[in-house]
Amino acid sequence: MTSVIRTNALVKRYRSLTALDGVALEVQEGAVYALVGQNGAGKTTAIKILMNLISATSGAAEVLGTDSRKIRGKAYAQIGYVSENQEIPEWMKVGALLDYLRPFYPTWDNSLEQSLVKQFDLPLDRRIKALSRGMKMKLALASALAFHPRLIVLDEPFGGLDPLVRDQLIEGLLERAAESTIFLSSHDLAEIESFSSHVGYLDSGKLLFSEEMSSLATRFREVELTRETDQPLPSPLPDAWLQPKTSGTLVRFVESRFDEQKTPAEIQRVFGNVKDIQYRPLSLRAIFLALARKTEEV
Amino acid sequence: MDQILHIFKKDVRRHWPEILISLSLLALFTRHELHPWTKRPDFYGFSTYMFFYSGRVIIPALVIVWTFLIVRVIQSETLIGDRQWWITKPYVWWKLLLAKLLFIFVFISVPLYHSQLFLLHKAGFPVLPYLWSVVLLQISLPCLIIFSQSCLLV
């Protein structure tokens, strides 16, 4: 499979602040890749480097087989970029903006444009200035989808939007997912979980993991076990066990390297005999929180 | 060429009020230049009356309006920053540049050129021998304004 995005040891420094610290990620064609992380983790910086809006301090990034530093002009005819920070020309009317954009893209699809306008309920004769934030995002997305981009890049597309608008945006995106690769950053983990195929977790500029959503769901488990006697937690616990908590004989933690054979054996080694063990799958939000709290503790 | 005209048309749609003000001021300037009070002996000396009623105020106003118009048309696609909407669209930079130059040419240089030729003609000078000199003036004026703005931006 072809890589649509590939970065290698990507570093971005702003004086003493390191926004990205050796990020290496790969996004395969057809993937819906979600880059998650706390505020200030470096998600927007990574996207800006990929879009050649800012330059990296060191390292390399490739987008659609082109060095990201050379992404300009016609290269954007294959990339649909939507960011919450973008300044859309607010003096234009919705219809005028779409009319204006149309000739820039050789692959612009008028019937798709019309269906997106209908789907997103966009008022063609209203000034963009008068639109709500959700409407502006829908307009930006419609204008980024109407030309069948090979790559759709979305920077925090769902931030501050009501659930209805979010659903409409996701629906619009999913309908295009078959023909495009989608790369997005977001805090909205519940929404991402519903449609992403891959996820990358960025923390203080470092990519802690980048993998398929299904393998992530398999790897993380909430473990709850009951010991025979009430004792303090043994120390040290394995690094892969996050947020260990104890209450009487009950112990609960998040296993970040769950394996059907190895995990029970590891529990046996650390705790000895236990009465009962339960493994529960975790939502992306719970995984994210466990990782975020772990890094906060460090 | 299509993209140049496309950007040009968008700029005209956006900046028509400024264009209208600029053309009106130029028409006023031309009208005042023809008025006999330019031949009064106190015209080049300072007097409030002469300043406001002789049309001499129009020249600085015109320069300010032109400067404003050029800044506005360039700022439509701002070069500085990373939040501009247009920088992730398939613009070709030299076409964008030509679209802006075309705008300045059409709405500043051409009207001024015609105004000056008209004034030469009205003053009794033959127009043809001065065509090239007036063209040079048209080129130098926007260059001067753009250069001074670029220096300010840098």
Characterization of this structure:
The complex is a heterodimer of chains A (298) and B (154). Chain A has 298 residues and is of the alpha/beta class. Chain A has nine helices and 15 strands. In chain A, strand 5 (58-63) and strand 6 (66-67) form a beta hairpin. The radius of gyration of chain A is 22 Å and the shape is elongated. Chain B has 154 residues and is mainly α. In chain B, helix 1 (2-34) packs antiparallel against helix 3 and helix 3 runs antiparallel to helix 4 (93-122). The longest helix of chain B is centred in the N-terminal third of the chain and has 33 residues, at 2-34. The two termini of chain B are 30 Å apart. Classes of the chains: A alpha/beta (298), B mainly alpha (154).
What layout of secondary structure does this protein have?
The complex is a heterodimer of chains A (298) and B (154).
Chain A: E1 3-14, E2 17-23, E3 26-28, E4 32-36, H1 43-50, E5 58-63, E6 66-67, E7 79-83, H2 94-101, H3 110-119, H4 133-145, E8 151-155, H5 163-176, E9 181-185, H6 189-195, E10 198-203, E11 206-212, H7 213-219, E12 221-227, E13 241-247, E14 250-255, H8 262-271, E15 274-281, H9 284-297
Parallel strand pairs in A: 4-9, 4-10, 7-8, 8-9
Antiparallel strand pairs in A: 1-2, 1-3, 1-5, 5-6, 10-11, 12-14, 12-15, 13-14
Helix pairs in contact in A: 3-4, 4-5
Chain B: H1 2-34, H2 48-53, H3 58-75, H4 93-122, H5 131-153
Helix content of chain B: over 70%
The radius of gyration over CA of chain B amounts to 18 Å
Main sheet attributes: strand count, strand direction, barrel closure of chain A: 6 strands, mixed
H-E string of chain B? HHHHH
For the secondary structure, the number of strands of chain B is 0
DSSP strand count of chain A: 15
Uncertain spans of chain B:
none
Q: Give the helix/strand class of chain A.
A: alpha/beta
